[in-house]
Amino acid sequence: MSAQIIDGKAISEVIRAEIKAEVEEMKAKYGKVPGLATVLVGERKDSQTYVRSKKKACAEVGITSFGYDLPENISQAELLQIVRELNANPEVHGILVQLPLPAHLDEEEILGAISIEKDVDGFHPLNIGRLSMKRREPLFVPCTPRGCIELLDRMHIPIEGKEAVVLGRSNIVGLPVAMLLLHRNATVTICHSRTRDLPNVVRRADILVAAVGRAEMVRGDWVKPGATVIDVGINAVPDPDKPGGHRLVGDVAFDEVKEVAGAITPVPGGVGPMTIAMLLRNTVDSAKRFYGIQ
Ligand code: GUN
Hints:
By secondary structure, the chain is of the alpha/beta class. It contains ten helices and eleven strands. The model has no long low-confidence stretch (mean pLDDT about 95).
């Protein structure tokens, strides 16, 4: 039997409509509008595309965006100065520094300079530290991991007591999503490039989160029948039949895995749209906290 397709695009549209209504109410009742600053350094095409989508999504729900497109050769001191100005700007409630930064910049110092009250990406060491401990509340949870959990919740897929396997240990997805699954009382295994007998470990999963960035790595026979598969990968593979000469695929071989899994996210249209929806959510939550609105 073919898996249920988890329609992240449709779910994210519901969330964006909820957020739009909240922003309209904020504006009507209090005369306040949430603001997000996007900071993009350099000319990476993928980062430019992500930032453009984030700004467009802000405009659609009524969040003001402040775009900073900065040259590749900006110095650490100049970038830190911009972050500090944004920290002090009362119209900015969220600051997003698009990653990765060029190699000459110290990412850890830049992320650490963002006010934790405006850290809508959830990458500030204090927010990540709180996420990594029991009974500590981060002000913000990173957007893609939060989007993965939101998909499970909105599909009414239980997490507690389940075997969850996370493929990948990145700071942006693998590690934080593992923490969130653990907080929800899953039994969590994190796999990486040195994991031995990967297919057998993955096959334990009731919930599999694939976030390694390797096109169609997870095959049909790696997946336990009935498992829920959340595919975070976005990989471009050559395809002469497509307009740009490539198409996007996930970390999961969708056509094979959908015949085995109970539920699966497609690529595109699965986790991707949820990342942006969670960024909007975090930005509105931040603005409400700033203005003392419930
Ligand atoms: N690069 C890849 N994913 C993300 C993200 O969620 N936030 C930021 N700031 N950069 C990214």
